[in-house]
Amino acid sequence: MIKNKDKSLTGYDLDSRGVDTDEVGGDMVSYQSIYTYLTEYRDTEYEREVDDIHSRVASLGQIETKTETIATGIISQSVSHNQVQGAEPQIEVTTECICETCGTNTEMSVYLRNGGCPTCSRSR
Predict the structure, then answer these.
(1) Are 97 and 108 in contact (CB under 8 A)?
(2) How far apart are CA 95 and CA 111, in angstroms?
(3) Of 10, 26, 42, 89, which one's alpha carbon is 20 to 30 angstroms from that of 18?
């Protein structure tokens, strides 16, 4: 993903700027192909590290960023094709947890960092 002043550029954005996305995509290597090469041809073993909370929060952030990028591209294309009227909206994606005990909505990253529902943990 190419960043431009805190804004991700989608394939559509790159195409509109004259970047040959097929050529760029052809130069990329997938995680799976690297994994296969290392395990089958280089006799290496995959050692799965135990995820800590920080890496899980980071993974969640990556998922939210990816979702924002996809949604922004969809909206941008719809606006540029006059399927949606008006200016492009700002897209923001957050994942929330709803506590089964107290019903509080909490951003998942806060929930994970806190080790559970912040409202319930304050009342203990």
Answers:
(1) yes
(2) 10
(3) 89
Pairing of the two strands 7-9 and 105-107:
unpaired
Give the separation between CA 77 and CA 67, rounded to whole angstroms: 15
Q: Which tokens belong to 68?
A: 């924002």
Determine which helix (DSSP H) or strand (DSSP E) holds 105, and give its type and residue range.
strand 105-107
The string of pLDDT tens digits covering residues 75-102 is 999 998 999 888 888 999 999 999 999 9
Contacts of 56 (CB under 8 A, 6+ apart): 112
Two tokens at 54?
Answer: 């920080």
Question: pTM for this one?
Answer: 0.54
